[in-house]
Specification:
By secondary structure, this protein is of the alpha/beta class. It has 9 helices and 7 strands. It has a single domain (about 5-215), classed as Rossmann fold.
């Protein structure tokens, strides 16, 4: 693991509670603040379940599963098998606990591993990567691997670039949290999806993109 990847992993090891709190209703003031300031998070959550097709009986791979919010929801909606992977062990442990609390632990498997080094034995109907590519300096190897695993669709989010937004994120993540963030353009995403999927669509979302690649 290189130095930059190590710093990113270190940040996510420490940030599990802070990260899950973005979605939590427990602190209503903070929740509604996040709904306004970080509305992309909630929009991509909604778009994921609107664009993934039939969930009941499906198999799902959640790349960079974080605290398991997507994985657990897929299981709740009837997915037959959900595999969440993350390279931060604290995130994986949190996800396992969340699955037990939601009584979907039999459908869910969480693995602490880097997705490029993990050897998958199966393909998946649905692959998701939400908030994952923000921290990936080179998306090409991920697309090469994911395209071979995806039976139906690959849904992912990508941060877009704008001067003021880039600047404040650079200060918060690269300077303060020592965790660099990477940005994507429509042209770059169109080329990536066009190279690996038979069809795709790209939806702008505030400071990010929501993209779906299909293998019909």
């Amino acid at each position: 693991m290189d130095f930059v990847a190590h710093r990113t992993k270190t940040y996510f090891q420490r940030a599990v509670g802070q990260w899950d709190a973005l979605y939590s209703h427990e602190n209503r003031v903070k929740y509604w603040f996040n709904r306004v300031v970080r509305k992309d998070l909630f929009q991509r959550y909604r778009l994921t379940f609107e664009n993934c097709g039939e969930i009941s009986g499906s198999t799902v791979l959640d790349l960079g599963c974080g605290t398991g919010r997507y994985s657990v929801e897929f299981a709740r909606r009837g997915a037959r098998r959900v595999v969440g992977i993350d390279f931060a062990s604290s995130m994986v442990e949190f996800s396992r606990r969340a699955a037990r609390e939601a009584v979907v632990e039999r459908q869910c498997e969480f693995v602490c591993v880097d997705c490029l080094s993990f050897q998958f034995n199966d393909s998946f109907d649905i692959v998701v990567a939400m908030g994952f590519f923000d921290y990936i300096p080179d998306p090409l190897p991920i697309f090469e691997k994911v395209s071979k695993l995806t039976g139906r669709c690959f849904l992912a989010s990508f941060p877009s670039s704008s001067y003021l937004w880039d600047w404040q994120r650079h200060v918060r993540y690269a300077w303060i949290k020592k965790c660099p963030v990477y940005y994507y353009s429509e042209e770059q995403l169109a080329k990536l999806y066009g190279s690996f999927f038979k069809a795709s669509k790209l939806l702008p979302m505030g400071h990010s993109y929501f993209a779906v690649g299909f293998n019909p």
